[in-house]
Amino acid sequence: MNAPLLSICIATYNRAGYIGETLDSIIPQLDDDVELLVVDGASTDNTEAVVRKFAQKESRISYIRLSAKGGVDQDYDKSVELAHGEFCWLFTDDDLLRPGAVAAVKAAIKEGHDLVVVNAEVRDRELSTILERQRIIMQDNKVYAPNDMECLFIEALNYLSFIGAVVIRRSTWLSRERAAYFGTEFVHIGVIFQKPLPESALIIAEPYISIRFGNAQWTPRGFDIWMFKWPKLVWSFNHISKEAKLSVYSREPWRNFRTLIVQRSLGGYNIQSYCQYFSAMRVDVLWKFCVWLIACFPRKVIVGFHYLYSRIKGPESRAFFDNHFAKQRGGNIQCI
Fold it and tell me: What is the pTM of this model?
């Protein structure tokens, strides 16, 4: 049997309530040259039973249960190691593929790209309401040559924090440093941007993924991730210019009061966060008092203002805040 063209790789942990719906959206799109791997990081709920039920009916599904939870970075890396496809789609365990997604990706990778980025729409947790019709606003597909990596970084990095958008050549993934990015929560970003890709990258404009908003397992750790881990990763790529990094994400987003207010509204920032991150920090006394005040301010009041603002600005504004994408942009850089 020939190796498949595409492996859809899902790393999962305790998603019994969602992964069945995810698999239901993928299975009708499986072809003879597409396999589906589910790597389970030792779930303690009913995830194994749910996935095995699907695997018994569909020979193109492989279920691998690990002896221990390795974390999102290690488990996705393991899924790529175990895959057989020329390309790996690092899909998520609670979102859905829209009809035609696999066919569109197969057509794209046959064009010779190393990386394909699949656009997405954002829906509410029940998937009944569209919050954003496109995460990346674009009319047509766009190709980035290997020497255009900085342009890809500027235009797509924030969206690429969503791992489910990534389809990458397996040999490229395996040839690159991965272990250094374990624990960042974004190993795929490290793999993609540590150096220029050997071949081109493509963004598919059509949103072929439905993201289930507000269901991320890392939500309780969101403050640490978006205020510290993510900016540290963004600013770690030496071949990307300072101007490009500033256009994408502030080096120290926690210094911005608006960001902390949004985080307080979302429940990510509180007095415990203040004590953990800021109480011992040697900074301006007035700034320190202000961030303490934000941490202590009644969250219900801030949520009320947040709600009114989102009603006035509409669903896209609501999705912007609620997805924890309060990115602090430092300027507008255009890629020609």
Answer: 0.89
